[in-house]
Amino acid sequence: MSAHPPVFDVVIIGAGVVGCAIARELSQYTLSVALIEAQNDVGKGTSKANTAILHTGFDTKPDSLESRLLRRGYRRLLEYAPSAGIPIERLGAILIAWDETQAAALDDLWQNANRNGVIDAEIVSADEIYRLEPNLGSGAIAGMKIPGESIICPFTPPLAFATEAVVNGVTLIREFEIAAIERQAPDFYALRSANDTVCARFIINAAGLHADTIDLMLGHETFHVTPRRGELIVFDKLSRPLVNHVLLPVPTAVSKGVLVSPTTLGNVLLGPTAQDIEDKHNTNTTADGIAALLEAGRRIMPALIDYEVTSSYTGLRAATEHRDYQITAYPDESYICVGGIRSTGLSASMGIAEYVVELLTEQCGLTLSKKPDYQRVRMPNIGEAFERPYQSTEAISRDPAYGQIICFCERVTLGEIRHAMSSPLPPRDLDGLRRRTRAQLGRCQGFHCSATVKSILDTTLERSAGEAQ
């Protein structure tokens, strides 16, 4: 009998959008790969609580690793999204200067954008801004258009990446919180939780907010993650006609500032704040944060504040003392650290994944060969700008459950819920089902449908547990 569990070729720690993208990238090769996650689902941390924008990288530091990988990731995600069912709307953004100091910074930002390959950025007058955005608050004096900035569903990318990885042989291990990592001779690592052990020849640390903790377990102390709390407000869908573009402030050294943006789910987003905290689990909203956002919103778009708030939430970005990504290969240790992935992580995820695979082969010496029978996946597209099942005669004729609406705020059908529960990566709780279907994300926040949705979820989970025994 073996003294230890089977040894995976590669174990990826962290199933946020970056870890899932790496898992998908590696699933194209003849390797044994495990993706381990401390929580009960993928994309459940920082990845689900961001500003949901696909960034061009116009404002990143030229020639930085972040800038290079963001450009690669942006192009790849734009190409991948339509076939994978990831909602993207290329609305473009307008960077708005509200005073002379901000206006004076626009030329440097335009030159920065050009150095980063964003050559369609254009400085525009206040008259042009108000022509494009008639509901904008008074006082804007100049701006810059960035046509390539887009809005994206933040939930679907990690789900699509992870599902494609699992379908192609990656082992997803949920609820595995690492307590210790031990080097077993020169050949492999043992990663231990309170109840289990996973072994690996190579480790990729994509643990997000906890990447510094994992890095320290492996004997390195090159960066410290300080969670940057960003609070956001989601306004009712009735406010959507107010906004035509993503409205961005002139960024500072600390933050990209408070923006107003449509979402792919049909709402309007206001935020985020930027506050450094120590607690990596504190995702509470605060009275001061919400008040600051409402004050900023009154200046940016006064009419928006008159609409109902659907929800508010907080995301924690993995800020470090460095202004660039902290991606380092340690060939002698068969270890790659993917840390310091800040607010651009979603946009850069596929570029980061490609780069990590290059490090594995070129620096760490891992030999790769492509699978001949790789399978692509297509997720249900939950975007408001795309046809939904309740609108599809074809879907309803194929399965009448797609015509039976369960969540009326978001028009989510019984067919969609059943599909999510029978997928290769089914949810384990209401939050996971919400991110897959939109159920309970509407203005009533599940007040009317939660009992029905929970009953379907619980019944399915109980049946699955019984079948597994």
Q: Between the first and last Cα atoms, what is the distance in angstroms?
A: 24 Å
Q: Radius of gyration in whole Å, from Cα?
A: 22 Å
Number of helices: 12
Low-confidence stretches: none
Helix content: 25-40%
Describe the biggest sheet? 8 strands, mixed
Beta-strand percent range: 15-25%
Please state the structural category. alpha+beta
| Secondary structure tally: strands | 22
Shape: globular
* Mean pLDDT score: 94
Structural write-up:
This protein has helices at 17-26, 65-84, 100-115, 126-132, 156-167, 211-217, 287-300, 345-362, 393-398, 414-421, 430-437, 450-468, and strands at residues 7-13, 33-36, 53-54, 88-89, 93-97, 122-125, 142-146, 150-152, 171-173, 180-184, 188-192, 197-205, 226-235, 246-249, 259-262, 268-271, 275-276, 309-319, 326-330, 335-339, 405-407, 412-413. It is of the alpha+beta class and 469 residues long.
List keywords for this structure.
single chain; 469 residues; alpha+beta; eight-stranded mixed beta sheet; five-stranded antiparallel beta sheet; 22 strands
Short description:
By secondary structure, the protein is α+β, with helices and mostly antiparallel strands.
Secondary structure layout plus pairing:
Elements: E1 7-13, H1 17-26, E2 33-36, E3 53-54, H2 65-84, E4 88-89, E5 93-97, H3 100-115, E6 122-125, H4 126-132, E7 142-146, E8 150-152, H5 156-167, E9 171-173, E10 180-184, E11 188-192, E12 197-205, H6 211-217, E13 226-235, E14 246-249, E15 259-262, E16 268-271, E17 275-276, H7 287-300, E18 309-319, E19 326-330, E20 335-339, H8 345-362, H9 393-398, E21 405-407, E22 412-413, H10 414-421, H11 430-437, H12 450-468
Parallel strand pairs: 1-2, 1-12, 2-9, 5-14, 12-20
Antiparallel strand pairs: 3-8, 4-8, 5-7, 6-7, 10-11, 11-12, 13-16, 13-17, 13-18, 15-16, 19-20, 21-22
